[in-house]
Design goal:
Blueprint: H1 18-28, H2 35-39
Length: 40
Amino acid sequence: MERIKVITSVQLRRCYTDQEKVQFVAITMQPGSSVSSFAR
């Protein structure tokens, strides 16, 4: 049996440039920082 995904709402997915991704990683690598705190 094949799975079918039903989309019931509009979901926007953010697109980040490679440079932005590098900046995000650099921020989370700083002492006292975490990915979850940055994501908020």
